[in-house]
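Data card: per-record layout.
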Amino acid sequence: QLLVLNLRHQDLLCRLAGDRFVVLLPDTAEQQARQLAEELQTAVASLAHKTRQHSERLHLRASTAVVMAFDDDAEQLLKRLNLGLAKAKQSLPRCA
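The structure for this 96-residue chain is written out next.
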């Protein structure tokens, strides 16, 4: 719901697998897509919740990658997206 609330009317949010989502941004320049990805990361990072068992406060974070779709088929596009996400996750600081 948080992601949907931070998207434009013409954007489409899809669950890819588990905790992975894809946002389709029609007619969007790469810089604008990167800005929106950063805004979504910030929105997710502002969330926290307490666990039921230990009442620990869990903070959430998101990794984002932006890939532009030109003449790619869906398989090629998802492959590039997964590579971009793997690279983004490598640059995140490790949690203790």
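Known properties of this structure: The longest helix spans residues 74-90. The chain has one domain: 2-90.

See the next section for split statistics.
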